[in-house]
């Protein structure tokens, strides 16, 4: 029988080991985090204050903005702390907690993207029935369903993690507590954990992936049958922002997790992780605001109101 020393904390390898880069990276990621919170909070404020944006499409967009703020807050503050202290030591409990919230926000986001695909399908392919299908009660129930599934999924993983013991001093080759990386440093039998990841990856993630992209097959077919060029252009514009966000998130996540050698977490993999954990929440509000005339118009009105209020004060 092999004796193991049970570890109460583990080490994160971090984004970079070069001491001279710690301060510049701290400032860069701090700026990114502040911009992420500002951009997504502004989207939420615009949707709450402008009645033109109080529709199912923008309700889902506002929910996505809230999830983006939570999603970025799971990883970036810890990364900033490690840049500042350069210790990169995290307790097992804190690591598992970070994994819970990371899984919750990640699954919530991809599930919401699937719901937004369905919303675009109804709006373009069944416009006459849109208000009957996508009424407010249905929208709220869809979002609550997404959140409940994410809570249960994350909780199951965490409960299984709590039964494991960790005894390896090998650093996690990442800048945040990643589920796959944490299992690699466990001295317990992780068969059930790995099996759950595989089963959920095939059925849950595969189902969400299909629900996200399959509606666009019907949407594109419907758009191509439209006789008016203006109608086709409008339909494409309402889908382009959502598709851009979907491709960025799925592209970088798939590259990182389905690397030919997942154990070899190279610098390229860390950069890919930065894209889907840090940059995606930042670019989401930019993509939707720059590609949406209604949001741009609402933003101008909002800025004018602030300017007028500031001049009066």
UniProtKB/TrEMBL annotation:
GO terms for MF: G protein-coupled receptor activity; olfactory receptor activity
Pfam families registered for this protein in UniProt: 7tm_4 (PF13853)
Gene3D superfamilies xrefs: Rhodopsin 7-helix transmembrane proteins
GO cellular component: plasma membrane
Entry superkingdom: Eukaryota
Compartments (UniProt record): Cell membrane
Residue ranges constituting the G-protein coupled receptors family 1 profile domain according to the UniProt record: 39-288
Key words, A-Z: Cell membrane, G-protein coupled receptor, Membrane, Olfaction, Receptor, Sensory transduction, Transducer, Transmembrane, Transmembrane helix
InterPro entries assigned to the protein according to its UniProt record, in alphabetical order: GPCR_Rhodpsn, GPCR_Rhodpsn_7TM, Olfact_rcpt, Olfactory_GPCR
Membrane topology, as annotated: Multi-pass membrane protein
Transmembrane segments: 25-46, 58-79, 99-118, 139-162, 191-218, 239-259, 271-290
Family: Belongs to the G-protein coupled receptor 1 family.
Protein name per Swiss-Prot or TrEMBL: Olfactory receptor
Originating species: Hymenochirus boettgeri (Congo dwarf clawed frog)
Origin organism lineage: Eukaryota, Metazoa, Chordata, Craniata, Vertebrata
């Amino acid at each position: 029988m092999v004796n193991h020393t049970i570890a109460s904390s583990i080490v994160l390898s971090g984004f970079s080991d070069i001491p001279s880069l710690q301060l510049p990276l701290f400032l860069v990621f701090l700026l990114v985090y502040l911009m992420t919170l500002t951009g997504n909070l502004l989207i939420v404020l615009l949707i709450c204050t402008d009645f033109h944006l109080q529709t199912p499409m923008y309700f889902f967009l506002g929910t996505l903005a809230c999830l983006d703020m939570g999603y970025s807050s799971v990883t970036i503050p810890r990364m900033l702390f490690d840049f500042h202290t350069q210790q990169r030591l995290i307790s097992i409990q804190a690591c598992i907690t970070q994994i819970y919230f990371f899984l919750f926000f990640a699954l919530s986001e991809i599930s919401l993207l699937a719901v937004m695909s369905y919303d675009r399908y109804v709006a373009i392919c069944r416009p006459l029935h849109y208000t009957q299908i996508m009424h407010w009660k249905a929208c709220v129930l869809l979002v609550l369903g997404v959140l409940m599934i994410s809570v249960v999924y994350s909780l199951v993983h965490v409960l299984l993690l709590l039964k494991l013991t960790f005894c390896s001093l090998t650093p996690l080759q990442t800048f945040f507590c990643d589920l796959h990386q944490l299992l690699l440093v466990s001295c317990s039998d992780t068969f059930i954990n790995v099996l759950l990841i595989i089963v959920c990856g095939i059925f849950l993630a595969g189902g969400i992936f299909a629900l996200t992209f399959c509606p666009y097959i019907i949407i594109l077919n419907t758009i191509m049958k439209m006789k008016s060029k203006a109608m086709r252009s409008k339909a494409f514009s309402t889908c382009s922002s959502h598709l851009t966000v979907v491709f960025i998130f799925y592209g970088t996540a798939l590259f990182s997790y389905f690397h030919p050698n997942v154990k070899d977490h190279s610098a390229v993999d860390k950069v890919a992780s930065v894209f889907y954990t840090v940059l995606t929440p930042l670019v989401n509000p930019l993509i939707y605001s720059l590609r949406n005339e209604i949001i741009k118009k609402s933003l101008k009105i909002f800025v004018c109101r602030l300017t007028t209020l500031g001049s009066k004060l």
